[in-house]
Amino acid sequence: MTDTAEWHPSACILCECNCGIVVQLDGRTLSKIRGDRSHPASQGYTCNKALRLDHYQNNRTRLTTPMRRRPDGSYEEIDWDTAISEIAEGFARIRDTVGGDKIFYYGGGGQGNHLGGAYSGAFLKALGARYRSNALAQEKTGEFWVDSQLYGGHTRGEFEHAEVSVFVGKNPWMSQSFPRARTVLQDIAKDPDRAMIVIDPVITDTAKLADFHLRVRPGTDAWCLAALAAVLVQENLCDETFLAEHVTGTEPVREALGAVDVDDFAARCGVDADLLRAAARRIAAASSVSVFEDLGIQQAPNSTLCSYLNKMLWILTGNFGKRGGQHLHSTFAPLFGTGGVGRTPVTGAPIIAGLVPSNVVAQEILTDHPDRFRAMIVESSNPAHSVADSAAVRDALSALELLVVVDVAMTETARLAHYVLPAASQFEKAEATFFNLEFPHNTFHLRHPLLQPAPGTLPEPEIWARLVRALGVVDDAELQPLRRAATEGLDAYTQAFFTAVGANPALGRVLPYVLYETLGPTLPDGLAGAAALWGLAQKAALTYPEAVRRAGHADGNALFTAILASPSGLTFTKHQYADDWDLISHADRRIALTIPELLEDLRALASGPSPLTSAEFPIVLSAGERRAFTANDIFRDPGWRKRDADGALRISVQDAEALGLADGDRARITTSAGSAEASVEVSAAMLPGHAALPNGFGLDFVAADGSAVAPGVAPNALTSADWRDAYAGTPWHKHVPARIDAVVPVRA
Ligand SMILES: Nc1nc2c(c(=O)[nH]1)N[C@H]1C(S)=C(S)[C@@H](COP(=O)(O)OP(=O)(O)OC[C@H]3O[C@@H](n4cnc5c(=O)[nH]c(N)nc54)[C@H](O)[C@@H]3O)O[C@H]1N2
Ligand SMILES: Nc1nc2c(c(=O)[nH]1)N[C@H]1C(S)=C(S)[C@@H](COP(=O)(O)OP(=O)(O)OC[C@H]3O[C@@H](n4cnc5c(=O)[nH]c(N)nc54)[C@H](O)[C@@H]3O)O[C@H]1N2
Ligand code: SF4
Ligand SMILES: [Mo]
User: One cellular component GO annotation, for this chain's record (predicted)?
Assistant: First the structure.
C-alpha cells in the first residue's frame, strides 16, 4: 500500500458529493490527489478542496488513544479494554436507573462517513435509547416535513439536463452538493437555450452566472417564491394536463396564490416585479426545470413555508417524471427516519424524520424535568461548535452524567466528554456515505482503506461491536451457525441468516452487530466494516428490483458482491423516468398539493414581513456562509487554507462607509447571544444591511510551536437557540440580527 507510483481510489469527504479521487501515498501522507475518472457520478471532477485532504489525515489534533476525564478536567490515556468496559457499564447503569430513553445520540456521520452511524444503532437499541439527532435537524427537516406530505420522499433536480435550473438560497459554485457542479453551472451559462435563476441577496459566484438574479432582501424569500408561483397561476402558465392527471388538492393552492398581489409581494422582497414575472414565465416556458433549495432559505425565517412554495414552481409546471426535471430517487440507506411527527420529552418540540431539532438539545438537558436527557453519545459531529448558542450547548453537555465522544480529533465537544474514543480516519477504514441522491442513475461507493488504522485508533464498526459485546446482550453461540455459513459463501449465508433471525427475532434488533461479527471476518481487503451493507443491498434489491437489475445486479447478493469489487463506486439503480411515479409513497401515486397550515401562512404573508432587526441590532448577519476554504468542522488545521485565513466578515460598501471600516480593519459583531471580533472585507456583493461570516471557523488548534490558535469567528457564538422555524425547529443561522462596530486600535 506504500507504493508511491500507484493511484488508490477513494473519495473526498468534504461535502455530500463525495467525489471519487485517486491518491498517491508517500508513507502515511496523501501526497498526490486527483479526480477519479472511474467514479460513476463525479467522473474525474473535484473542486479545489479535495487536493488538501492530507490536512485531515495528518494533523496535530488527531486522537491516538482512548481518554478519560479526571475530576479536575484534565484527561488521562486509558487502554481500549478499560474504555469499553467502563463506557458500557456507565450506559447500562443509566438504562437501569433512569431508563435507556434518557440516553441521547447525536451525529452518526459527517459529509463522508455513514458506516459508524449504521453500527451504533445496535448498541443504542440494546440500551433502549430512543432519541437521536444530527445536523440534518438544523437544515433539512422542514423540507422533509413538506416532502413527506407532498409525495413522501426526497427529491433532487437533474441539473445536467435541465433547461432551467433554479437555485434558492443555494450557492453551488462554492457549496457544490450535486455532481460536477461547476462544470454543470458553466455549461448552463454558456448555452443560450438554457437558463439559470438564482434567488439570493448576495451576488454569489453562482449568481454571477445567472440569467435571472432575484436579489431578495434577506429573509423575504417567502414573498418572492409566493409571487413567482402566483404568476404561474394568475397568467395561466400551469401545466393543466399534469395537474389533472397527477396532482390532488390543487384548488386551495390555486385560490391562495390567486389572491397574491404580485407587485406588492415583489416590493416586499425587494425584487423588481418585471424581473420576477420574467423569471416565472421562463420557468413556465421551459421543457424541463430543476430546483435546488438550501441553507439560504432553510436557515432563515419562514423556512418550511419557503420549502413548500419552492416546490410549487416545479409541481405547478409539471416538471416531474421527465428528463431534466425534479425526481424522487432510490436510497441505498435512508438518511431520514420514518414515522409521523413525535415530540421531544421536555420541550415538546417536533421530532421530524426521527430527529430532535438541534436547537432544543440544550433545553432537553438543562432542566429538572424527570425526562431530561442524562447521557449522550456524540459520533462524528461537533455540536459544541456547530449547534446554535454554543455557550448553552456547552453548559448542557457539561451537565450530563455521561458523555462519550467518538471522533478522529480532539474537538470542542470532545473536550467536554467523560470519555473520548479515537476513530480511525476515513482513509484508514472501509467507509461510505448514504448521500446517494441521484436519478435516474444512482450511485454507491464503498471506499477501501488506503492505510492501516493509525496506532491506537479503531474503525467505528469495531468500536460498536466491542460495546455491544460488553453489554452481553447476544449469546455468542447463536452466532456460530452464521459464522460457519459465511465461510461457505453468500447463498449459504443468506439461508442461515433468515433461519437465525426467524428463530430469534432479538438478533434483528442488533442486526449490524450480527452482520459484522459473522459476515465481517470473511470480507477481503480490510472491508469487514462493509458487512452491514449486505443487509442494505438485500433491501435495495427488494425495493427496486427492476432498477437494480437494470444496473446489472441480479439480486441482493450480486449487488453486495459488486459493491465489494468496485473500489471506485458503482451504479446501483438505473431507473426510467416513468418510475418517478412509483416512488411516490401515496397509494394513488399522486402529489398531494394542499398543506393546510402552510396555506394559512401563505395567506398571512399579505401583512408582512416584519423585520427582526432593531435599532440595537440593525444588520442581518448570515452566520456560516460556504466559501472556497470552508469545510464544516472537518479540517481543524487552519494551514489548509490558501486564502481568507481569518474568515473575513463581509459587509456592504454602504455599511463600511457608514461604520468607517475598510478592508482588513477589525470589527466587533454583537448579537443577543454574544460578541466576537473579525477582520472586515468590504464587498460589492453584499446588500446594505447584510453581512456574512463563513462557517467552520473558530476551531481550536495547537500550532507547531505549541501555541493555541482558533482563527476566525465560531459562528454559533453569535446565534440563539430560540430563533427557529415554527414547524421544524430549524435555526435561522442566515438571519441573525447583529450590530457591527469598528474596533478602534489601541495606540500605545
Ligand atoms: N465550501 C464548502 N462547501 C460546502 C460546505 C462547506 O462547509 N464548505 N458544507 C456543505 C454543507 S453541510 C451544506 S448543508 C451545503 C450548504 O450549501 P449552501 O446552502 O449553498 O451554503 P451557504 O453558503 O451556507 O448558503 C447559501 C446561500 O444562502 C444565501 N442567503 C443568505 N441569506 C439568504 C436569504 O435570506 N435568502 C436567500 N434566498 N438566500 C440567502 C447566502 O448568500 C448563500 O449564498 O454546503 C455543503 N458544501
Ligand atoms: N451558525 C451555523 N451553524 C451551522 C451551519 C451554518 O451554516 N451556520 N451549518 C450547519 C450544517 S448545514 C451542518 S451539516 C453542520 C455540520 O456540523 P457537524 O454535525 O458538527 O459536522 P461536521 O462539522 O461535519 O463535523 C464532523 C466531525 O466529524 C469528525 N470526523 C471526521 N472524520 C471522522 C471519522 O471518520 N469518524 C469519526 N467518528 N469522526 C470523524 C470531525 O473531526 C468533526 O469533529 O453544521 C451546522 N451548523
Ligand atoms: S468538497 Fe465536495 S465537490 Fe469538492 S471535491 Fe470534495 S466532494 Fe467533490
Ligand atoms: Mo449541512
Answer: membrane
